[in-house]
Amino acid sequence: MKLFGSAARAEPLPEAALSALLGRAIWPRLAVGLAALLGAALLAAAIGPVAIPADAVARIVLSRLPGVSLADSLPQSWQDIVWEIRLPRVVIAGLVGATLALSGATYQAVFRNPLADPYLIGVAAGAGLAATAVMVSPLDYTVGGVSLVPLAAFGGGLTAVGLAYALARVGRTVPTVTLILAGVAISSIATSATSFLMINHNERVLTTLTWLLGGFNLSEWSKLWWVLPYMLPAAAIILLYGRILNVLQLDEEQAQQLGVNVERVKLLLLGAASLATAAAVSVSGIIGFVGLIIPHAVRLLWGPDYRQLLPMSMVMGAAFLILADLMARTVNSPSEVPVGIITAFCGAPFFLYLLRLRQRAVF
Amino acid sequence: MGTGGRRVREPLPVSRQGFVFFFYPKVYSKSPSPISRRGTFYIPQKGADVSSLVQRGLLLLALVVLAAAVACEDGGGEPTPEASPAALSAVQVPYPLSIVDTVGREVTIEAQPQRIASLSPAATEVLFAIGAGDQVIAVDMYSNYPEEATTRQQLDAYEPNLEAIAGVGPELVLLFYDPGELADSLERLGITTAVLGSVEETPESVEAVFEQIRLLGQMADHVQEAEELVAEMQGRVEAIEEALADVEQGPRIFHEVDATLYTAGPGSFVGGLYKILKAQNIAAGADQPFPQLSQEVIIERDPEVIILADGAYGESPDTVKARPGWGNISAVGNDRIFVIDPDIVSRPGPRCVEALETLAEYLYPEGFE
């Protein structure tokens, strides 16, 4: 039964042929992706609700290099806006986009489920509950200028995932279906508790709702330290496991026979992806859709090999979220739009377009 | 009734209360902040379109308030608002009284209501201020002023429970927000119900408040006290307007509603107060009454005064000064960041003039000592 099931899967290419094909092919597409990312970042740095000429932006950024001073003649407010507000926003949006897309791809691989996204087993719901609890509490949630919200979100997200994992444990294994169900159940509990808190503290509902929909309006450089320490090691680990994730697509039992310690890999990769996602959510709120569609878009464009799908998802996720955030701060200027609305509203049609385009070729 | 009115109105004219709040910023009590009271709260606001629709609807409602109030005064042969208080002393409200509430429902009040359930913090403040406090038997849980109001039975205005409201046995229920068909359901139970709407998003703020005070004065049969209250408030507003007569353009202001940079735009009640003060609201140009401004925009538009209505979130002049990129904003450099109690500044009740006076002091330190 299981053997037949695996034979029917969509990736029957021999491993050797695949690696020969992709080993060389990844560099051109990575170059394309990085160029897109660079373009998105430059565009996002140059455009904002406050009109600052592109050359002024360039001079302000270059002046940060030691020994260069090109920005002295520019208004101080422009320098503050570009360096303290806009650039951290672009960088953090990129990091969060990369993290969500990478985690989404990892979840989809480990669960072998195309509907998986990084919030599947509770990170978002747990983070949302904890963040909301802090935001509606009668106590100050800014202590000495540092907000407790990211800390709570990070802890809440990890707690929810840990709980789901513990509950799904059967003996020494954690069946993926059980884990998904446990995660979905825990997410429901957390979501309903969040709604309850919001309803009961409706004087703060706009604050909490805005956080839940995600955004980068309050980005600052120091928030890098909320993301990078988790995101970098997690990304390194996950990228190293690209080949094993390919093997895992066959079937858990077969992967086991091929020498993969499936339970250990699942724990390691889900742990890394969840940790990175929790960190990303803690600085940006719950931005939907990126983690779901970017891996699929990459798959549609360049195929299902995880050795390229993982890095390409990171690059494209970063570029996509940078552009989405650019829209978030410009379409309704001078007001903000929660970026989660943009990602879903603009990302979905593009994804449907890709789906139609490749309908015959891939599926 | 009259004595009750005098008792609770005493704290009102204390014009320096703003300073008290400045020095003791932790005196906050829970109350809906301006943004929440537009009646949208609940799950909605999924997208900007929904919220702006709701906002527009509410703006319309607020306009209806004015129209309705004016209409009922004209049609019902009630005293005109301009009549002097002395001439009104003999006025008795002719019951049964028919009024049109702000959602266009015709409301008939059979006799002076002795048991009022006020599910609106602003209406509660008005009722107590016009001496009808003794008639109030239940309030919503955000009705925290005057102190005496908190001794009444508490109901939930946002998630209203029909049974709980009926359970207190009210003769008149005042809502500022009807989540569904609450008013009709109450009427079916034989409980007279009026929806007063919220003027949160009415820039003609004080005028709208005056209209609501007069309407409540009629409903509770305290017409004279209501006129006196309006006259007193009007006098204080005019004093400010007079003092600012020569001011061409006041300082640029940023009114921070919460730590995620929601602000009160010119289209809001609070924005209306700043308009009276001739301040230049840096949120001008935003479509919504309560927009969330981009940080870039705040820095570019360089507010000269920052008013924090989010002290309860832990924000303070010090946290604002510490924000990256904010160091060169005029208000930060000149140390003109002030904390104000959101209950006073955003609640369309009698204390809005108090807020006006406090803000005048913050905006014009030389003109208002």
Radius of gyration of chain B: 20 Å
Percent in strands of chain A: under 5%
Q: Helicity of chain A, in percent?
A: over 70%
Strand content of chain B: 5-15%
Which segments of chain B are poorly predicted (pLDDT under 50) over 5 or more consecutive residues?
Answer: 1-57, 66-90
How many domains of chain A? The number is 1
Shape of chain A: globular
Percent helix range of chain B:
25-40%
Main sheet strand line-up of chain B: 5-4-3-6-7
State the CATH superfamily name of chain A: ABC transporter involved in vitamin B12 uptake, BtuC
Largest interchain contact: A-B, 48 and 51 residues
Structure notes:
The complex is a heterodimer of chains A (363) and B (369). By secondary structure, chain A is mostly helical. Chain A has one domain (27-362): ABC transporter involved in vitamin B12 uptake, BtuC (Orthogonal Bundle). Chain A is built from 16 helices and 2 strands. Chain A has helices spanning 2-7, 15-46, 54-62, 76-111, 123-136, 149-168, 176-200, 205-213, 224-240, 242-248, 252-257, 262-284, 290-302, 306-330, 339-357, 359-362; strands at 142-143, 146-147. In chain A, a hairpin with a 2-residue loop joins β1 (142-143) and β2. In chain A, α2 packs parallel to α14, α4 (76-111) packs parallel to α9 (224-240) and α4 (76-111) crosses α13. Chain B has 369 residues and is α/β, with parallel strands linked by helices. Chain B is 40% helix and 11% strand. Chain B is built from 15 helices and 11 strands. Chain B has helices at 2-9, 17-23, 48-75, 85-88, 121-129, 162-167, 182-188, 205-219, 223-243, 269-276, 295-301, 317-321, 330-333, 342-346, 352-363, and strands at residues 97-100, 106-109, 116-119, 136-140, 153-155, 172-175, 192-195, 252-256, 280-281, 305-308, 337-339. In chain B, the strands form 3 sheets. A 5-stranded parallel β-sheet of chain B has the order 5-4-3-6-7, with helices on both faces. In chain B, α8 runs antiparallel to α9 (223-243) and α9 packs parallel to α15. The two termini of chain B are 37 Å apart. Chains A and B meet through α4, β1, α7 and α8 of A and α11 of B.
